[in-house]
Amino acid sequence: MKAEELRQKFIEFFRARGHAVVLSSSLIPDDPSVLLTTAGMQQFKKYFTGELDAEKDFNSKNTISIQKCFRTSSIDEVGDDTHGTFFEMLGNFSFGGYFKEEAIKYAHEFITSKDWMGLEIDFVSVFKGDDNVPADEESEKIWESLGVEKIKKFDRDDNFWGPTGNEGPCGPSTEIYVKNAVGNSVEVWNLVFNEYYSKSGVLEPLMIKGVDTGMGIERLAMVTQKVSNIFETDLFTPLTSVLPHELPERVKRILADHARAVSFLTSDGVRPSNKEAGYILRRLMRRMIVHGADFENLFNKVGEIYSPAYSELNLNVVLEEFKKENDKFQKTLKSGLKELGKLESIDAAAAFKLYETYGLPFEILKDTEISGDKAKNLSREEFDKEFARHQEKSRAGAEKKFGGHGLLLDTGELKAVDERELKIVTRLHTATHLMQAALRQVFGPEVKQNGSDITAERTRFDFFFSRKVTPEELKKVEDLVNQKIAEDLPVGFVEMPIEEAKKTGALYFFKARYGQKVKVYFMGKDLESAWSREFCGGPHVSHTAEVGKFKILKEESTAAGIRRIRATVE
């Protein structure tokens, strides 16, 4: 089966069994504990903890998704038979709807039935237990009742799924292994049974037991298409086929993998930079640039493969951003490679200097096609230590300059490192309230918040809206915000019971968890006549004129039905 058919089969199977289909969330997660989205369960984390209600939001306790994922841990290894960065995760989830028996029976039927995948299970694994958590004998018995004879018992490293980030839902898992084309056993599906909540390693029972499963479509395609590795599936062969024939196979795989990752990261709003997700994107882009190829054809082929399933994929923006990074990098690349050629060997200090001065990332320095054996003794750990040492040095300089100690403000939504940044994010936070009110005035009540993130550089605001926004409409929003700033409206708040607050018509974020009492911030003479009313905890300016000039930098799609605006204040 082709990958597109696998997606449709998965949706068809679980939809017929009462699961709500939920669109993939962005690769930029709402969860501040992780840099990028690494698993399907991340967007559902609060449903497992009971903070949000699945029945209320999805009309079902059971959901499925095909989630875009990215794992940074695989960047260095891309090029072999198994490692990739971007991948799609098929997953079914239950938040108190069903547990082990139904989840295992669903998985068994989908994998083995000739009506679905028609594969033969080689073996399954279950958690064998340890001093803290008992063995998962229940899953073992369920598999036996289905006629699966080969059951292996593994320890915590293999069959106990920890939380994403520092804390969260977790529990024992059971994995399904099938044979690939060369007879090797491959794990295709991991079923996690969330029974506990982990905080700093301490486990407490979850009030609502849940199911969280994940099956990489690349591996499923590999076994159903009877090929020996993921790069021989229809998700990769169209990409490698447009690359120059003379390129080594390993380089073709790197370029194909990175082209997919760059396309989705860029389309989800990431831009090349020297920090966080932007740093990851820059590493991928520059690794591609060094190897050289007809990248326009490669990115267009990514669009052909994925645009039918992911309408948010924006190849025009991808090509534009890649060209900008290429033009920027070419200025120093030649000098960097010349400097690299002078070295007999590359240790951590030399590697960081090449990165800092010429922008040559670790992956390029380790690439034998570029540096030969010069960096054979250089490890990622050593490079990261050198990188961290220089970051600490820079941070110490900033603290000395500003008198700060780490982040002065970090609410998850707002981040500021010092008093100067605190004043900027306060202005931006108030501007974000004004922008949401302006969006609703221009587009109507369809506009609803889907998350925000505010730093000293910009505000990022995600909202539900069903179509593309025109430049003229954006200008209306920008002008309306600046009009309200010029009116110098007073900003105040009242604290009241949440049910009473809802009756005022104040906006609130449906994913947020509020207490019995909330603060309603308003902009205007009073709450009743205010132009903007929202549940919020602050901080805000006292009058809108303090915001300064508001400017929209960019508007784009992040997923089907979700738009994103980046804006700043001057």
TrEMBL record:
GO terms for cellular component: cytosol. Keywords: Aminoacyl-tRNA synthetase, ATP-binding, Ligase, Nucleotide-binding, Protein biosynthesis, RNA-binding, tRNA-binding. PROSITE patterns: AA_TRNA_LIGASE_II_ALA. Pfam families: tRNA-synt_2c (PF01411), tRNA_SAD (PF07973). SMART domains: tRNA_SAD (SM00863). One of its GO terms (molecular function) is ATP binding. Gene3D superfamilies: 3.30.54.20, Bira Bifunctional Protein, Domain 2, Threonyl-trna Synthetase, Chain A, domain 2. InterPro entries: aa-tRNA-synth_II/BPL/LPL (IPR045864), Ala-tRNA-lgiase_IIc (IPR002318), Ala-tRNA-ligase_IIc_anticod-bd (IPR018162), Ala-tRNA-synth_IIc_core (IPR018165), Ala-tRNA-synth_IIc_N (IPR018164), Ala-tRNA_ligase (IPR050058), Thr/Ala-tRNA-synth_IIc_edit (IPR018163), tRNA_SAD (IPR012947). SUPFAM superfamilies: Class II aaRS and biotin synthetases (SSF55681), Putative anticodon-binding domain of alanyl-tRNA synthetase (AlaRS) (SSF101353), ThrRS/AlaRS common domain (SSF55186). Residues 1-570 form the Alanyl-transfer RNA synthetases family profile domain. GO terms for biological process: alanyl-tRNA aminoacylation. The keyword tRNA-binding applies. Its EC number is 6.1.1.7. Belongs to the class-II aminoacyl-tRNA synthetase family. NCBIfam families: PRK01584.1 (NF002436). This is alanine--tRNA ligase.
